[in-house]
Design brief:
Length: 272
């Protein structure tokens, strides 16, 4: 007698993880870019001493803080879901997949958590140089956080640096640096971060344009537009290069995924 398999648990697990990931990904790219924009505007304030740049920095810093908080909250939920929703997977590949996640929490997360407090509450308590350093370290911490998460994701796309142990029935890491320096991981990281920079540039440009349309805070809006436009243009040009590299890696390592991306649902050889 063949018993039917109830797949509802898998479906609900997928739905919950997808919902969390959707909200997480609404805020994370914006956080990656806003952190750097805030650091740039504060650098201009530090070098010029113009109080208008300080006021501008504080405004965008508040919006960065909102996105940062929601991104952290949804990210923590996703971390727990690896254990609650996909516990068998986490056990099977935890020796490899868990390492980048642990490093992300220990290195990047604590770096952000330490210096974001100085960034928000240290304006009158530390020197201008110390505050600027804290702001840059917060932005760098967010980027490092993305690095280790994307290394873990890239390993799922292209598993390297591991062997299957039949005694433990688990995949075990054999080469940490092969996992970290995988070309899939490096392309994925650079492309994702640059994409986040473009999102942030468009976000700043949009809000600044609204101020200009309403003829409010003209000087503030024009300064913000100049920074965001240059920042976004540079990121956009570089994204073309990294996007080509990412697509090449997909073609080499995941031809079936490339076929799905191109809408080629019938198998073939030498397809254009």
């Amino acid at each position: 007698m063949i018993e039917s398999i109830d797949t509802s648990l898998v479906e609900w697990s997928r739905a919950q993880f997808a919902l969390t990931a959707m909200y997480h990904w609404l805020f994370v790219p914006l956080t990656l870019g806003l952190g750097v924009i805030v650091a740039i505007t504060e650098t201009i304030y530090y070098t010029t001493g113009n109080e208008a740049w300080k006021r501008l920095t504080k405004f965008w810093m508040k919006l960065f803080g909102v996105n940062f908080a929601i991104g952290i909250a949804t990210g923590l939920i996703m971390e727990f879901e690896f254990g609650t929703n996909w516990s068998n997977y986490s056990w099977f590949v935890g020796d490899i997949f868990g390492a980048p996640l642990a490093i992300e929490a220990i290195l990047a997360f604590f770096l952000e958590a330490t210096f974001i407090a100085i960034m928000f509450f240290g304006w009158e308590k530390v020197s201008k140089g110390a505050h600027l350093t804290a702001t840059w370290l917060t932005a760098i911490g967010a980027i490092l956080s993305a690095l280790w998460i994307l290394i873990a994701n890239a390993w799922m796309q292209h598993p390297v640096g591991m062997t299957f142990n039949p005694d433990t029935v688990r995949n075990e890491m054999t080469d940490f640096w092969a996992v970290v320096l995988s070309p899939v991981a490096l392309n994925k990281f650079i492309h994702t971060v640059l994409s986040g920079w473009i999102v942030a540039a468009l976000f700043v440009l949009g809000i600044s344009s609204w101020f200009l349309i309403k003829k409010r805070e003209i000087d503030f809006a024009l300064k913000s537009v100049k920074v965001a436009a240059i920042f976004g243009l540079v990121a956009s040009i570089l994204t073309v290069w990294t996007g080509d590299g990412s697509a090449y890696q997909v073609a080499q390592k995941q031809p079936m995924k490339l076929a799905a991306m191109e809408g080629l649902y019938e198998g073939g050889h030498g397809v254009g």
